[in-house]
Amino acid sequence: MVLSGWFGAPAANALIPYVYLPTEEELKGSSIGIGRTAAQLLQLGQPEQAAKLAALAVRLDPNDERFWSVLAEAQLRSNDLEGASQSLARAKSLKPEKAGLWFAEAAIALRAEKPNDAVPLITRGLQLDPENAAAYFDLGNARIMQNNFPLALKSFEKATALKPNFWEALNNQSLVLYEMGELDEAIRRWRRVLTIENNAEPMLALAAALHQQGEQTEAIQLASTALAQNPNYVLPMHQAEQLWGRRIREATAQLLGEPELTNIVERAQANATWKKSQ
């Protein structure tokens, strides 16, 4: 029996295993497609799946700050604040002149309730992109968290100067004005907000302010509509998370204690779905 064909040298026509190795340029091309898919998954509200694809994209091309940005956003939406911060730091190291990266890092600091960290990040971003209304809005929120109401008001007013129909910034102007004791001006601006956006937050805040002035009928009507639209605002914890100050929360509690609102308040409490943001 001849065994050399099995155990000796391989036959001349034996197949040699071959694995295709893509080039660096091909890997970069693949990473772009993967990164785009990750961004699309974010738009579809699937941050966990987006994070997995974005992580693959940065492995294929770690020198493209766009992939790190997508990864950071996916991590942020998945409540992985530490991971998001690390990804943004990598993105900033690759493209420090990109204002959006500074703003994004500030957003993470605000989510972590660290306004002292957020303010210099937003300030640096505004040096690179001084016409960014959303950044001034975030800066105003950071100033509220620092209890610096005059600077908060200034930031929110800058936001609406850049974007006149920025109702969220106008609403926050009223919140600040109310805490500063400027009741009439806060009411005037809340009324203006409702001409732009018929939203439950300014509606209930306006109702509370009007109730303080004795405008019982309008206050009850506005509060009823607001709580039917968004029952979460019946909860002081939700109000606080939306940066409502002590004075407006106390005024709201007084309003919601009115007998005419008892059934409406109970219904809102039963329907509230609020969960604290992480």
Layout: helices, strands, pairs:
Blueprint: H1 4-7, H2 24-43, H3 47-60, H4 65-77, H5 81-94, H6 99-111, H7 115-128, H8 133-145, H9 149-162, H10 167-179, H11 183-196, H12 200-212, H13 216-229, H14 236-241, H15 246-256, H16 262-271
Brief summary of the model shown:
The protein is an all-alpha fold.
Record keyword descriptors for this entry.
mainly alpha, 2 domains, Serine Threonine Protein Phosphatase 5, Tetratricopeptide repeat, 16 helices, elongated, 278 residues
Note the main sheet: none
Q: At the fourth CATH level, what is the homologous superfamily of the largest domain?
A: Tetratricopeptide repeat domain
The helix content, as a percent range, equals over 70%
Q: Tell me the β content.
A: under 5%
Query: Radius of gyration, Cα only, in angstroms?
Result: 27 Å
- The number of helical runs is 16
In the predicted model, the low-confidence regions spanning at least 5 consecutive residues are 1-12
Please count the beta strands (DSSP E, at least 2 residues each).
Answer: 0
Structural class: mainly alpha
Total count of domains:
2
Order of helices and strands: HHHHHHHHHHHHHHHH
